[in-house]
Amino acid sequence: MATVMQKIKDIEDEMARTQKNKATAHHLGLLKAKLAKLRRELLTPTSKGGGGGAGEGFDVTKSGDARVGLVGFPSVGKSTLLNKLTGTFSEVAAYEFTTLTCIPGVIMYKGAKIQLLDLPGIIEGAKDGKGRGRQVISTARTCNVILIVLDAIKPITHKRLIEKELEGFGIRLNKAPPNLTFRRKDKGGINFTSTVTNTNLDLETVKAICSEYRIHNADVSLRYDATADDLIDVIEGSRIYMPCIYVVNKIDQITLEELEILDKLPHYCPISAHLEWNLDGLLEMIWEYLDLVRIYTKPKGLNPDYEDPVIVSSKKKTVEDFCNRIHKDMVKQFKYALVWGSSVKHKPQRVGKEHELEDEDVVQIIKKV
């Protein structure tokens, strides 16, 4: 493990020394690919000895409709926030590293059960295996949204450091997957095409990155001005693209002018967990970033059940997805569905299982006899 850490440090030092220009782009691309491979080795060590095993995360059973992780440095108020939002007890104290394991809590919001995880404080160098960083971030990878909790007194420095740690583990915050196609093939060498002018990648750099992964035949086509990092992310394939909210806590300790400066941050929500300021605003923002859809069920001859909606993701919201959320055998007996709501023109409308539902639709499933 120490040798991997040393190799990572050597490459990072060399990248820091190298001037960024057209002549060195090829060399930097190669170094980035080597770095990504070493980082992956850190996350999932192949050897039995050393380094405390793979990043298996904390053993917390996934429950509810979505999972939200609280990530931040020690003593920024994550545990206080968990206590206020969920009523779960997570030890709070004035010293650092009060939380040493992962504490789960549940928020009931708009009929959805949202599991909130209070992860132990991250330290600088977590991506290189320091502290319990590997477990914290392995658990963070299973979340639907990450809340980076920052201290209002030093938010920007912390924000950069945490982003760097999460990026090192292949978590991409508030980014869409790169719009480029990478396809391996059996022969024909490296084929590189692009529909736009490229300032970052050329054929030589693409070949160098591919050869680092021992790929000698592939088609690479770009639809935007991609960087070497984007290409590495697609080849690695284990990247997770996740929405993230920067929760700036302890705003009661700063001036109004400072708050206005912070207000310019994108994806940002100011709160005071201790004084319970703006917690409703934070919940509303979490709901928006989770991008969930509530579907109400209507048993035959009865009124819709508005108390207990079925929660589905906005990316998987067909009638078939809705049936699978209730019971996996339901689709086999499915005949058609009656839908009331904004996704249909008539109320009710008879639809098949491919029909896409909208938030707060009411659905009645008719089974085959």
TrEMBL record:
PROSITE patterns xref list: G_OBG, GTP1_OBG, TGS
Record keywords: GTP-binding, Nucleotide-binding
Segments forming domain TGS: 291-367
GO MF annotation list: GDP binding; GTP binding; GTPase activity
Residue ranges of domain OBG-type G in the record: 66-291
InterPro entries: Beta-grasp_dom_sf, DRG, G_OBG, GTP-bd, GTP-binding_2, GTP1-OBG_CS, P-loop_NTPase, Small_GTP-bd
Name under which the protein is recorded: OBG-type G domain-containing protein
